[in-house]
Amino acid sequence: MPDRIAPLHIALDESACTGCLTCMLVCSERHFGATNLLRARIRIDLDTLTAEHSGHTCRQCTDVDGVAPCADVCPVEAIAYDPDVRAWIVSEDDCISCGQCVDACPWGIMTLDPVPDLALKCDLCGGAVRCVEACPTGALSLVDGAGVRVADVVVGATHQGAPEEDGHGR
């Protein structure tokens, strides 16, 4: 990734995850002010009959040209790298809901938000990663591109770890 600090991402230790869904609840609460699992930017698939579960997080990946596949296909360049947060961020003002980023996501984690019909992906909470903070088992961690845990680092955060509002009431 030339001229850029490598992105950070949330890693999930599935052996430590209990499937409690706390991460999804705090994610939707943080971004939308209400708990709605369909609007979470992290996903835990839970089989309620067997209690088996699997987790999915945005890897903030880049391809050979140093651009995330979702950003690469966006026809309006609504997904851009934020070097302060060290993540690929969707501009809600620019997104046209075409869904090309959803199709391009190699991990299947990007979705279109069912309410405003805009692309959703993890934005690392602007730097204060709420799901990592809230996970009761420590199954989630913030890691660099090599998978090395970033200890107690809150990137781009303001006033006691809470990111400033982003102009959309979040």
Radius of gyration: 15 Å
Shape: globular
State the secondary-structure class: alpha+beta
- Separation, N- and C-terminal Cα atoms: 30 Å
Name the strands of the widest sheet in spatial order.
1-8
N-to-C series of helices and strands: EHEEHEEHEEHE
The proportion of strand residues reads 15-25%
CATH class: Alpha Beta
Mind describing the biggest β-sheet? 2 strands, antiparallel
Separate helix tally: 4
The CATH topology label is Alpha-Beta Plaits
* DSSP helix fraction: 10-25%
Q: What is the typical, i.e. mean, pLDDT? A: 86
Can you describe this structure?
The chain is an alpha+beta fold and 170 residues long. The chain has a single domain, classed as Alpha-Beta Plaits. It is built from 4 helices and 8 strands; from the N terminus they run βαββαββαββαβ. The chain has helices at 22-32, 69-73, 100-104, 130-134, and strands at 9-12, 43-46, 53-56, 79-82, 87-90, 111-112, 119-120, 140-143. The strands form 4 sheets. Strands 1-8 form a two-stranded antiparallel ribbon. Strands 2-3 form a two-stranded antiparallel sheet. The radius of gyration is 15 Å and the shape is globular. Mean pLDDT is 86; it is low at 153-170.
